[in-house]
Every structure is written in C-alpha cells, then in structure tokens.
Amino acid sequence: MKKTSSGADKQATCVEKEESCEHAVEHGESLEAVQSSGRQAGSALPGSQCPPQLRLTDGPLGASPAVMETMGADALPLTVNSSEKRDVVCIFGTGDFGKSLGFKMLQCGYAVVFGSRNPQVSSLLPRGAEVLSYSEGASKSDIIILAVHREHYNCLAELADHLNGKILVDVSNNRKINQYPESNAEYLAQLVPGAHVVKAFNTISAWALQSGTLDASRQVFVCGDESKAKQRVMDIARTLGLTPLDQGSLVAAKEIENYPLKLFPMWRLPFYMASVLCVFFFVYCAIREVIYPYVNGKTDTTFRLAVSIPNRVFPVTALTLLALVYLPGVLAAILQLYRGTKYRRFPNWLDHWMLCRKQLGLVALGFAFLHAVYTLVIPIRYYVRWRLRNATITQALANKDSPFSTSAAWLSDSYLALGILGFFLFLLLGITSLPSVSNMVNWREFRFVQSKLGYLTLVLCTAHTLVYGGKRFLSPGILRWSLPSAYILALIIPCTVLVMKFILILPCIDKTLTHIRQGWERNSQPSKSALNGKPDI
Ligand SMILES: NC(=O)C1=CN([C@@H]2O[C@H](COP(=O)(O)OP(=O)(O)OC[C@H]3O[C@@H](n4cnc5c(N)ncnc54)[C@H](OP(=O)(O)O)[C@@H]3O)[C@@H](O)[C@H]2O)C=CC1
Ligand SMILES: [Cu+2]
C-alpha cells in the first residue's frame, strides 16, 4: 500500500484500502485478487519482450576505443535493427548490477552508455556499450540509472549541473530495514534537486537479469513525483519483459527499499498459525492415542506417532487453516454491518490477516496434500494388515461372518468421495491463485473461483470430516479423559464460518451489506475521523 504523508492522502489511501477489502469481503476471496487486477493492468504488454534475435555488430554510437570485451558468446547483445534509432540510456556504475542491466538493455534494443569513475579500466562490459566518465555519460542521455551504492551518492552533488532536468533512476537497496532516516531515493532527490528521481528495479537481482531467470522477480515497483519520468521508466521495465507496478509518489520509496529485506512477510502469519495448530493437535492426539492407552492398559502404541497421528494432525490443520482463510472476510462483513459504514478502517490485525489469505490457503493445501499421501499408504501399513488378517482369522475360527452393512458402505464411500472432490477443488483454488494463472483469467473469473469455489471446497471438506465421524460422532465412548477426537475440534471453526456466512447471505442481511458496500452510511453524518484522515482503530 502506498505511503502518503498528508491527511487527505491518508484518507484516500484508507478509502482505497477499504474499497479493496470491501470487494474482497463481499466475495470472500483473497485480497490477492484485488492486487491481481492491478497486476493485469500493469503487466508486460504482449510483444514487449526482447525483440527477435538479430546480432548487433556495432554500437549505435560507433565503436569507441572504450568499448569493452564481451561477456561471453551467449552474452552477445541482441537488437531489432541496427539502422533503427534507439533510445540511449546511461548507467552510472560498472559494478554487478550496472553490467547486468546494461546487458539486458542492449539485448532489448537500447543503446547503453556507462558512466564510470575509471572509464579506461572498466572491464567485462557487454559488447556494444560505451564507457565514458560520469559527466560525459550524463550528457549522452536524459535518463540515467544509478547502479551505485547510496554511500557513494555524495559524488553526484558535483555533477548536479549535468544532471539538471534529467531522469535519475535509483535502484539501490540497503543492508538493513530502515537503515537511514530517509529513503535512498529521497536522499538522492535532496542531493540533486534539479533532477526527476524515480525509484525502480531494486527488487530485480543482477543475477536474474543476466541469466534470464526472471520468473521469481518480474515485478518492478516504481515510484516518483514526476509522472512523465515515472512513465518512461515503466516503459523501459516493460521493454525488458518486466512488470512495472506504480506505487505512487517518492514517499513510497522507503517501503519499496524495504521489500527485498523482508523475509517472506506475507508467509509469516500463515506459518505461525500452521505451526501452532500442528503442535497443539499433535500433543492432543498423542495424549489421547499414546499416553491414555499406556496409562490405562499399559499398551505401547508409540508407533502411532509416525503415521496415524500425523494423518490426523494434517487434515485437521488443513481444514482449520482453510476455514481461517474465510473467517476474516466474514468478520469484516460483520464489522461493516455493525458500524453501518464501509468508510472506516479495519483493525490492523484484520487487515494483515486479509492480506495473507492466499498464503494461508496455500499452506492449508500443503497439509491437505500430505493427508492425501498419508491416506494412500494406509493399506500397506503393517498394523493395518495385521488387524485385517486377525479379524479374518478370528471370524474363521468362530465360524461367523459379518453381515454387509449398506449404511456403513454409504458412509465410507461418501466420506471418500467428499474428500476426493474437496481435494480436487482445493487444488484448483491453489492453481488459480498462482500469478501465472491468475494473470490469464479476468477479475470476474478469479472472483468466482476464489469465492464461490472456495466456499464449496470448505463445505465439501467440512462434510468429509462430518461423515468421517459418522455414527460415532456423539457417542460418549469416544471421549478419553473427557477429550473428544481431534476431528471434532477441527469442525468448530469451519462450522462457525459456514453458519456465519449462511446468515450473511440471508436476503435481509445481504441487502443491507450491499448498500453499505455501495457507499450508504447508517448515520448520514460523515464520520469525523474519516474526514480528518485518522484511522478509527
Ligand atoms: N547486485 C544486485 O543484484 C543488485 C544491486 N542493486 C543496487 O545496485 C547498486 C549497485 O550494486 P552492485 O552493482 O551490486 O555494486 P558493485 O559494488 O558491484 O558496483 C558499484 C559500482 O558503483 C560505482 N561507484 C561509484 N562511486 C564509487 C565509490 N566511491 N566506490 C566504489 N564504487 C563506486 C563503481 O563503478 P565504477 O567503478 O564504474 O565507477 C562500482 O562498480 C547498489 O545500490 C545496489 O543496492 C539493486 C538490486 C540488485
Ligand atoms: Cu480426509
């Protein structure tokens, strides 16, 4: 989310955020959907990738004596047509990032001029690039990419005259989060006030640019105060086959600089929730299925710790996590109904929870997958084969046969069918949330899959667990030390979510909620806090 400084801006951001949340809540899907529509808008245009491979034999600026060695045979620059006039881009700094970016730009048809402290000794630069001093390089282009560390920006103050009116692209990163009071881009803007500073490319690694493995990091977050300058940088990013995302004014640079330093920010909460659930259910099942039999009958059932108990913990965790994907949407809807307006911020914890729903869903899918694998090995387990054999022998010795029970067959088959269908839809949800797939579907399709199919998955998986309980469900015999089976606990959150959702879609409640989401407010007086831009919570 864009960082803004003024109160009015803050309000705009707040409303914008709630708009997104509102959509998300309305349809119960992940906010990723909201982001995905932005992604689509900013995604690389078809055909904006590097042009067909035609070798450049000579730089557009003429082969200067400073043209350096090649970066290897496969690193030869490729371009459209050497006779075509190409944009000239200047890169300051001939380090790892400068070289890799220059190489990629040459490949994509740009003319590249490097600015270096020592143009004569810079080596291993891509063929076709010219190397000049900083001031000479700056005079060749009106767009200059600074592939230099922030610590060395002070030398740019001397070049201020050469940089006036130019677009300066800051690509720098820091070693620590919030290392300096102001962002590197803002610091640069202070050093060279006459230039238009744009922050971009800091989330792309030099290695990815050079090796072409850009799958993981195609997104380029761009921010700057001058919109034309920003547009030009975004055009360059598109031409390089990247996906530029406009993050607003230069104030956003601080957040953009922190991105590469954050380790899985959106995955932390899902992993934390999953770990807590796993540990809790593992200990719970161990008490019921290992410690209880030992205390009561001195039976050693520790072997259950390897397969039986994990195969209880995984499905129970998967189902609880899946319900936790849909719980914040329901809570947000209730909050909006209670407040009678959508123009108030959700509490931070709810906001954060909403934002990591996609990750929560994917972690849940991982556990569901483990449950499927563990279930497949059940027939080859020694314990299971031993029990089957024993039951058969006992029956044979007693000369008895067990009558076929249609209801038991129905229960077992419905349990399996619900599980298989639930898992299939779960997989479908996971696949459609991948950026490569979500970029291919439109906003309506994405919403349909993540919301309608999502709830259907939750219904099927909850039903799968209910049928598993079957007739034993409420029999007191399944209590051990008054503890019910883990699957009964696992049903609490999913059933609560489904009941709440069911109430929310009742016509009378749904109508009010839809009104609120369309901007209607119960108290017609505008909220004071909404006017001065302060969050309510
Ligand atoms: N490496 C990466 O994967 C990424 C790097 N970045 C950012 O790109 C910038 C450059 O990184 P990288 O190329 O890895 O760094 P390097 O250390 O490899 O290169 C930095 C370059 O800065 C120039 N420079 C200018 N003034 C000085 C000085 N006083 N002392 C030393 N060097 C100076 C040098 O070029 P010359 O000798 O030609 O003047 C040097 O080669 C950094 O801000 C970094 O945060 C961003 C994303 C990824
Ligand atoms: Cu199951």
From TrEMBL:
What is its subcellular localisation? Answer: Endosome membrane
Can you supply a Gene Ontology BP term from the record? iron ion transport
Q: What is this protein called?
A: Metalloreductase STEAP4
Task: Write out the GO cellular component annotations.
Answer: endosome membrane; plasma membrane
Reaction(s) catalysed by this chain, per the record, are: 2 Fe(2+) + NADP(+) + H(+) = 2 Fe(3+) + NADPH; 2 Cu(+) + NADP(+) + H(+) = 2 Cu(2+) + NADPH
Q: What is its main location?
A: membrane
Transmembrane is among the record's keywords = yes
Q: Where is the signal peptide?
A: none
